[in-house]
């Protein structure tokens, strides 16, 4: 590619450099990416989260999010995901 030098002017990730050197579309789907998709909240999970929030909201001196995470039936959710979902709701 005669215009590849223009791409060198911009910051690249290791995956982008690999694509440039081996040819575009050389990476398989999902390869070279570090981001993991967060599964969306289902309506049932949102309802459970809402109920847990109202249950532990009034507890004094306790960490509400830690209590919610301990009793959340869907494992694998992080503290940040729970806080973000609560703010969104």
Automatic annotation (TrEMBL):
**Molecular-function GO terms, alphabetical:** DNA binding
Which intervals of the chain form a coiled coil? Answer: none
One matching Pfam family is HTH_TIMELESS
Single GO cellular component term: replication fork protection complex
Some GO term, biological process aspect, for this entry: which one?
DNA replication checkpoint signaling
| Protein name as it appears in the record | TIM protein
Q: Which organism is it from?
A: Rhadina sibilatrix
Phylogenetic placement of the source organism: Eukaryota, Metazoa, Chordata, Craniata, Vertebrata
């Amino acid at each position: 590619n005669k215009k590849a030098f223009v791409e060198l002017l911009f910051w690249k990730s290791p995956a982008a450099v690999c694509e440039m050197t081996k040819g575009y579309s050389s990476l398989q789907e999902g390869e070279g990416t570090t981001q993991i998709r967060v599964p969306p909240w289902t309506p049932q999970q949102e309802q459970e989260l809402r109920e847990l929030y109202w249950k532990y909201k009034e507890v004094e001196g306790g960490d509400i999010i830690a209590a919610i995470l301990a009793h959340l039936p869907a494992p694998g959710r992080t503290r940040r995901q729970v806080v973000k979902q609560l703010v969104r709701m």
